[in-house]
Specification:
Elements lengths: L9 H8 L5 E2 H11 L4 H5 L9 H15 L3 E4 L2 E4 L1 H9 L6 H4 L3 H11 L5 E2 L4 E2 L5 H12 L3 H16 L5
Antiparallel strand pairs: 1-3, 2-3, 4-5
Helix pairs in contact: 1-2
């Protein structure tokens, strides 16, 4: 079994936190993977940078998103579920995804802020709309920054690889 994407950790984090008033972050980190029945190999798998395990990375991102939605909070160095987090668990029986987090104004504000004022992301259907001038601006910027075609093409391949694999971390 491979380590699931970060959004698969959202429900297990909330369920774990719902069992107590507060749980140390270390205890949360040790309890959530067991809810997902991850193998020893899964637990040891490192992200490409080698800086942390894939499970730690996914837990970090899921907690970060849950905090941004106001569903969990840091309580004196421990993690705690909020009333909103309990309510979400009560109304959803299945997996919890990013679309569910978009029901919370604080999460929408976080997403708008992280995308900047000129974003072209449609929150209603979760799609990107590319502005007409973007391709040309990128092409000109790259040609000025990297005049050598071979090096520029290698940089573009690396960038494409990074974008395609961004959700792996």
């Amino acid at each position: 079994m491979a380590v699931p994407p970060f959004h698969a950790f959202l429900r297990p984090v909330l369920e774990t936190l719902a069992q107590a008033a507060a749980i140390s972050w270390d205890d949360l980190w040790s309890q959530v993977p067991s809810r997902l029945a991850l193998s020893e190999a899964d637990l040891a798998e490192m992200i490409p940078s080698g800086s942390q395990t894939r499970v730690d990375s996914r837990l970090h991102w899921s907690c970060y998103y849950l905090r941004r939605a106001g569903l969990i909070r840091d309580q004196d160095g421990s993690a705690a579920i909020t009333d909103e987090g309990r309510a979400l668990l009560g109304k959803h029986n299945g997996p919890i995804g990013v679309a569910d987090l978009r029901e919370y104004p604080s999460f929408l504000e976080f997403q708008r802020g992280s995308q900047g004022e000129r974003s072209e992301f449609n929150m209603a259907d979760g799609t990107w709309t590319l502005r007409a001038d973007v391709h040309e601006k990128i092409r000109v910027k790259l040609e000025r920054s990297i005049p050598d075609d071979a090096i520029r093409n290698a940089a573009l391949r690396l960038l494409a690889f990074a974008i395609e694999n961004a959700d792996e971390e």
